[in-house]
Amino acid sequence: MNNFLYKHRFLLSRRIVQIALLTIYFGGNMYGWTLLQGNLSSALIFGFIPLSDPFATLQMFFAGAAITTDILLGVLVVLFVYSVIGGRFFCSWVCPVNIITETAAWLRRKLNLTDKKKRVTFSRNIRYWVIVISLGLSFFFSLAAFEMISPIGIAFRGVVFGFGMGWLFLVAIFLFDLFSQSYGWCGHICPLGGFNTLIGRYSIVKVVHDSDKCVHALECFKVCPEVEILAKVGRESVPIGGACIKCGRCIEVCPSDAFEVSIVSMAGMASMAKG
Amino acid sequence: MDIPNSKERRDFLQKMMQGVGYGALGIIAWSSYLSQSQARNLTLRPPGALFEKDFVRTCIRCGMCVEACPFDILKLATISDQISIGTPYFTPRTEACRLCPDIPCASSCPTQALDLTSLIKENKLSIKSARMGLATINTQTCLAYLGLQCTMCVRACPYPDEAIFLHNERNTRTDMHAFLKPVVNPDFCTGCGMCEHACPTTVASITILPLAISKGDIGSHYVVGWKEGDESRIEDDSTDVTLEKTKRNEKSVIDNLDDVEGILKGLYDE
């Protein structure tokens, strides 16, 4: 049992953080707790530290809305955190949709739906196009286009303020991820994932691979939601960059402890990339 | 040009066109949802809200106003509400705005989609200057207009005799009773909806409509003789209008209208 806990230490911590955040925001609405108020679009910590979603704010800017200083401050706080620990940590530690898609991916593995011949493959670059389209439509329709359909917003607001029919949207994502494309939403389409990837590109906290320890078990390839980032695994010792969501699953499943979380300075990254 | 190169190019073009196809489908579906959500609707917003179009683009959908509302009157729109998703609204027939003097909803807004500055009068917060909508009365179903004594809306109104008052009129049907007809004064009505909430008819006979729909505007092209100084607006206007001569404006307007026979014959048709 302890072994199970250890083997899932990141997964369990992430679920605890995700559910705790939902609970705290829910309490903020329901019981007036002031620890965290609002939701993932914009929030206040202890009633005075502002947080705002940079992508939502960018859409609002394109829609022609006046951006207040409160919102700008919130964006700066979030950008600072993301640029240090990596934007996509949001995807695996905060975003409630992550729970849905990881469950779908797990079920997909269990049901053996991963046969390559049957698989429809989407490009991972779709998400960057969705960013462009979001901003274009925001400009054209004068409102934040992605926020209007964001399943993240629907899920989070759903828990904190009530769902309406929004849960159908989440069921659709679950089915899409289960039957059509592994990590279809989070790893291919979600523009926020793409946006966070771009922001966290030079983050200093990264999962680092040690190829000397690697025994080529390929367990990491089975669980990684963004497998392309593991291209050099087993051949070079590198920090895992790009679209890594810092979920820590590779660290948990690796039989030879060839992955670890580490602080990578810019110089270190450059030298590791070379050597 | 060698053959493998052209195959590569063909594959590339085909792949790109595939992307364009998916993209077009997605953009059409997405756009139609967005444009539908922009349709002029009857949504009532919290006090201080910008005009609907500015409001939906400035609101970041954080729900902080909903959390701040001490009476849980504000709701956040879900995907099934036919209201721009994630934005706050209230339904007076269910729960009307209580007009808190400290305006916690607008104070909590981080984007000024609820513009607190529009609710400040003489350096003080003044909920009285909120204009969430305007009460409109259906005189066909209003009990008071039918001749019964009701006054529920006037009693519920937080600013009685200002925002809504009773206009007494002789009831000629009985010749011995009076109508006590409620009349709304748009200069004072905040649109809080207490009247709609209190109305005893099965479907409320007094309803709050957003100002964009309910507030008439006479425009600048009418000059009213009874309003002092109104005529001065046109003093400087030139009356020297030169028109292209047509059959229609050869004669004076009166003459034209008098010539019914000519009009029927189509004498003036261009």
Overview of the molecule:
The complex is a heterodimer of chains A (275) and B (270). With 275 residues, chain A is mainly alpha-helical. Chain A folds into two domains: 197 residues, no CATH class; 71 residues, Alpha-Beta Plaits. Helices cover 56% and strands 8% of the residues of chain A. Chain A is built from 15 helices and six strands. In chain A, the strands form two sheets. A three-stranded antiparallel beta sheet of chain A has the order 1-2-3. In chain A, strands 5-4-6 form a three-stranded antiparallel beta sheet. In chain A, a hairpin with a 3-residue loop joins strand 1 and strand 2. In chain A, helix 2 packs across helix 9 and helix 9 packs across helix 10. Chain A is globular, with a radius of gyration of 19 Å. In chain A, 44% of the residues are buried. The model of chain A has no long low-confidence stretch (mean pLDDT 87). Chain B is α+β, with helices and mostly antiparallel strands. Among the domains of chain B are: 89 residues, Alpha-Beta Plaits (2-Layer Sandwich); 84 residues, 2-Layer Sandwich (Alpha-Beta Plaits), CATH 3.30.70.20. Helices cover 31% and strands 12% of the residues of chain B. A two-stranded antiparallel sheet of chain B has the order 1-2. A two-stranded antiparallel sheet of chain B has the order 3-4. A two-stranded antiparallel ribbon of chain B has the order 5-8. Chain B starts with a helix and ends in a 5-residue tail after the last helix. The relative contact order of chain B is 0.11. The mean pLDDT of chain B is 87. Chains A and B meet through strand 2, helix 3, helix 4, helix 7 and helix 8 of A and helix 1, helix 2, helix 3 and strand 1 of B.
